[in-house]
Amino acid sequence: MIRLMAALLAVTTLGACAGEPYEPLPVSAYQWQQRQERIERQQAERLQRCEAMDKQSERYARECPRTGGAQ
Questions:
Q1: Could you read off the pLDDT of 27-36 as tens digits, one per residue?
Q2: Sequence spans of domains, the chain
Q3: Which pTM was predicted?
Q4: Buried (b) or exposed (e) across 33-59, using 16+ Cβ within 10 A?
Q5: DSSP line for the chain
């Protein structure tokens, strides 16, 4: 029983270390366009969130890098 618990703990711990899931590169022009639009949409959403955040907060410093400066 202890070995089973240790194995479950090891699997859970290692699973948390796995990065983002693999996203294959697009192969058609349509897929590239969809990918680019998604990236632009995510960037616009991030900028909108940054505008609404308190400029003195830790989260702002972490998530909203300043353009032209050290990041």
A1: 999 999 999 9
A2: 26-62
A3: 0.52
A4: eeeeeeeeeeeeeeeeeeeeeeeeeee
A5: -HHHHHHHHHHHHHHHH--SPP-PPP-SHHHHHHHHHHHHHHHHHHHHHHHHS-TTSHHHHHH-PPTTS--
